[in-house]
Amino acid sequence: MSNLLYPIFLKLDKVPILVVGGGNVALEKVSFMFKSSPNAKVTLIAPEIKEEILEYQGEYSLKIKKRKFENSDLEGFQALIVATEDKLLNYQIWQEAKRRNLVVNVADTPDLCDFYLGSIVTKGDLKIAISTNGKSPTFAKRFREILEEALPEEIEELLDNLQQFRNSLKGDFETKVKKLNELTASLIEN
Ligand SMILES: C[C@@]1(CC(=O)O)c2cc3[nH]c(cc4nc(cc5[nH]c(cc(n2)[C@H]1CCC(=O)O)[C@@](C)(CC(=O)O)[C@@H]5CCC(=O)O)C(CC(=O)O)=C4CCC(=O)O)c(CCC(=O)O)c3CC(=O)O
Ligand SMILES: NC(=O)C1=CN([C@@H]2O[C@H](COP(=O)(O)OP(=O)(O)OC[C@H]3O[C@@H](n4cnc5c(N)ncnc54)[C@H](O)[C@@H]3O)[C@@H](O)[C@H]2O)C=CC1
């Protein structure tokens, strides 16, 4: 097995994200975070910030600090995305963040990433995260687009019904698992 990454599904309202940098790469990261997690709490620090980033402020929880990064900005954060155009600065911020035990993504620099951002498909309550182990983000993007097209809207209804059925089940854990497995067996037939 070659992809050793372990996907987790973070609640970005409980684990706020700090983004350093306000250019194209920061925009990509911020836009995908809000697309997948509109309740995300994001703070972004940079002296120059793209207009498209600023526009998220009205509708989403985006706090902007329009100035250079300072080490004390890391206080209170557990997770960080670094996306300035200055490689040395990115490295220095990474060092300081690691010293403080944050998990860090230096955008587009796999060696300085504790986690990668994936391509994310959302259909109702179903969420699928895609990674190519860093080999081809473009493939991850295309595969997301394929899945977004291919997954039927009915999945939302299906999950609602399954939740209702699950809540209505009586009996011990084993009985419930058996019933749920019976009900969903047809999903994997053919
Ligand atoms: C390792 C990783 C670390 C990280 O940044 O988290 C990483 C690294 C790098 N990306 C690079 C470039 C591009 N990245 C994208 C797009 C995305 N990149 C994302 C994630 C990741 N990118 C992580 C691995 C994910 C995995 O495991 O597959 C996505 C999925 C999520 C997101 O960014 O939110 C998002 C698609 C979102 C979507 O559409 O769903 C595009 C395409 C485009 O923008 O159209 C290009 C240009 C084309 C190309 O190069 O492929 C470069 C080269 C930089 C250079 O050339 O200088 C590196 C560095 C390197 O490879 O060494
Ligand atoms: N733009 C792209 O599509 C790609 C960019 N990259 C790399 O990603 C990095 C970032 O690229 P872009 O976002 O395009 O750059 P950019 O030039 O658009 O943005 C850089 C951002 O960093 C901020 N910054 C600079 N000094 C700072 C400081 N002291 N504190 C806080 N913020 C600071 C700037 O204000 C600006 O908002 C670069 O290393 C670039 O080579 C890699 C692949 C693709």
TrEMBL record:
Record has Mitochondrion as a keyword: no
This protein's pathway: Porphyrin-containing compound metabolism; siroheme biosynthesis; sirohydrochlorin from precorrin-2: step 1/1
Cross-referenced NCBIfam families: cysG_Nterm (TIGR01470)
UniProt KW keywords: NAD, Oxidoreductase, Porphyrin biosynthesis
Keyword Oxidoreductase in record: yes
Superkingdom of the organism of origin: Bacteria
InterPro entries for this protein: Met8-like, NAD(P)-bd_dom_sf, SirC_C, Sirohaem_synthase_central, Sirohaem_synthase_N
A Pfam family per the record: Sirohm_synth_M
Enzymatic reactions: precorrin-2 + NAD(+) = sirohydrochlorin + NADH + 2 H(+)
Protein name in the entry: precorrin-2 dehydrogenase
A molecular function (GO) term: ferrochelatase activity
Domain Siroheme synthase central, first and last residues per copy: 124-149
Entry EC no(s): 1.3.1.76
SUPFAM superfamilies, A to Z: NAD(P)-binding Rossmann-fold domains, Siroheme synthase middle domains-like
A Gene Ontology biological process term: siroheme biosynthetic process
